[in-house]
Amino acid sequence: MDDILLKVNDLHAAIDGKEILKGINLEIRPGEVHAIMGPNGSGKSTLSGVLAGDPRFTVTGGSATFHGVDLLALSPEDRSHEGLFLSFQYPVEIPGVSMVNFMRAAVNAKRAYLREAPLSASDFLKLMRQKRAIVELDNKLASRSVNEGFSGGEKKRNEIFQMAVLEPRLSILDETDSGLDIDALRIVAGGVNKLKTSHNATIVITHYQRLLDYIRPDVVHILYKGRIVYTGGPELALELEEKGYDWIKQQVDNEQ
Amino acid sequence: MNSNSLTQYLDLYAHHREAIDARAPEAFNRLRPAASEALRRAARLPRKGDEGYARTDMAAMFAPDFGINIMRVPAPVDVAASLRCDVPNISTLMGVVAGDEFRPTATLQRNLPDGVRLMSLAEAARREPQLVEAYLGRLSADGDAPVQLNTLLAQDGVLLHVAAGVQCDKPLQLINIFNAGVPSMAVRRVLVVLERGASASLLVCDHSQRSDVDYLASEVTEIFLAPGAALDYCHLEESTPRTARSAALFAALDADSRLGLNGTTLTCGATRNSYAIHLYAPGAEARVAGMVIGSDAQHTDNDILVCHHAPRCHSSQLFKYILDDDASGAFRGLIRVDHGAAFTGAYQTNRNLLASTRATMHTEPQLEIYCDEVKCGHGATTGQLDPQALFYMRTRGIPEAEARMMLMQAFMADVIDTVTLPTLHDRLRMLVERRLSGDRRGCGDCAAACTNSLQ
Question: Topology of A31-53+76-245 in CATH?
Answer without folding.
Answer: Rossmann fold (3.40.50)
